[in-house]
Amino acid sequence: MHNPFRLVFFLSLLVTASGVNAQRPPAGTFPDRPLRLIVPFPPGGGNDTLARIVGQRMSEVVGQQVVVDNRGGAGGVIGATIAAGAAADGYTLFLGSLGNLAHNPALKADLPYNPPRDFAPISMLATSSFMLAVHPAVPAKSVRELIALAKASPGKLNYASAGTGSSLHMTSELFKYATGTDIVHVPYKGTGPAVTDLLGGRVQLIFSTMPPVLPHVKSGKLRALAVTTAKRAAAAPEVPTVAEAAGVAGFDVSNWQGMLAPAKTPAAIVTKLNRDVLATLALPGMTEALAAQGLESAGNTPAQFGGLIKSEIAKYTQVVKAAGIKVD
To answer: When comparing pLDDT for 42 and 25, which is higher?
Structure first.
C-alpha cells in the first residue's frame, strides 16, 4: 500500500525547490504583492471561516490582497506540508490550529513536517470551544442522555470529524475515553463536508469548532448539547459545558488557531507580520465579527505562540499515550 505521507513529503520537496531562488525583499518594502494564506482544510469549516475574516481585514492593513488557498486532506497534513516547504519570504502564510500543530504530532510519528522545526510562529488569532451537536433525529436531549444511549447500544452511534488526527477527531476520542462510550468514527476531508452530512442525517453527532455549526443550532437544524471548555461560551451561554452537563470532572478542551510562516523567514518580516496581525485584530468590528462565529481574539507575540505550540504537543503526547488513542 502506498504511504500517503511519502507523497506529501515529495510534494513538499518540489515546493521547496521551486521557491529556493525566490527573491526576498527587504522588510522595508514588504509586501509588494499579494500574500497567500494556506488553510489546510476545504472551504466551509471553522479554520476557513476565520481565515477569510482575518484575510479580508488584513488586506486593509498591509495594502495587498491576502488570498486564502484551501489545501485540504489527511487531517490537515497536506496543507501543512505544502506551507512548511514554501519559500521563506513571507508571502506564503499558514493558518495553523490545535489539530495540525499539536494533535497530529502527538498522534503520528511519521509526519512529513515538524511544527517547531518547520514553522516560524507569527501570532495566535483566536480561541474557541468545540460544540457537541447532534442531528434532531437523535433522541438524546442532553449529554447524560447521549452517554446513556451510547452505552445501551455500543457502536451504534457515530460521529463525524474533519479527518483522522484532526482536532475534531481528538476531542471526540477524549470524550469517549472520559465517558467510557463506544461511538464509531466517520472521518471526512474537512469540517464543511462533515457538517453537511450531519445536517442530512447521514451521521449523528459531531464535536465541531463553533463557526460551522452555530448558525444551524440557532436555526434549529442541529441540537447543541454542550461545549468543551471549562466555562460556557459567550456565543452560546445557554449551552452547558461537558463537565457540568455530564459530571465529567476536568473535561476542558479549547481550540486555537494562529498564523505562521515557513521556518527561516527573515526575523524582520516575521516582526512586521506580527504587527500587521495585531493591527488587524484591533480593527473596528473585528471583535464582533469573531464573536459572531464563537471565536475570541487572541493575538500574542511569536515567542508566546511558539511556546504554546511546544507545550500543547507535550500535553497531547501524554494524553494520547494515557488514553491509548490511535489513528484509524
So the answer is: 42
Provide the CATH number for the domain formed by 129-246 in this structure.
3.40.190.10
Mean pLDDT of all residues in 133-150: 97
pTM of the shown model: 0.77
Q: C-alpha cell of 318?
A: 501524554
- According to DSSP, residue 137 is labeled T
Strand partners, 131: 208, 227
The answer to whether 160 touches 73, Cβ cutoff 8 Å, is no
Q: Which residues of the chain form CATH 3.40.190.10?
A: 129-246
Tens of pLDDT, residues 275-320? 999 999 999 999 999 998 889 999 999 999 999 999 999 988 988 8
Query: Which residue type, as a one-letter code, is found at position 192?
Result: G
Nearest to 60 by CA among 261, 277, 297, 270: 277
- Smallest CA-to-CA distance from 47 within 163, 150, 157, 138 is with 163
CA-to-CA dists, residue 328 to 108, 158, 165, 314, angstroms = 11, 14, 9, 22
Gap between the Cα atoms of 219 and 233, Å rounded:
18
d(CA 38, CA 79): 7
All CATH 3.40.190.150 domain ranges of the chain, comma separated, are 4-21+32-127+255-323
CATH topology of domain 4-21+32-127+255-323: D-Maltodextrin-Binding Protein; domain 2 (3.40.190)
Contacts of 151 (CB under 8 A, 6+ apart): 180, 181
> For 178-229, what is each residue's pLDDT tens digit?
999 999 999 998 888 999 999 999 999 999 988 889 999 999 999 999 999 9
Helix (H) and strand (E) counts in the chain: 14, 10
Q: Where are the beta strands (DSSP E) in the chain?
A: 35-39, 66-70, 92-97, 119-134, 158-161, 184-187, 205-209, 223-227, 254-262, 295-297
Q: What H or E segment, with its residue span, contains residue 191?
A: helix 191-199
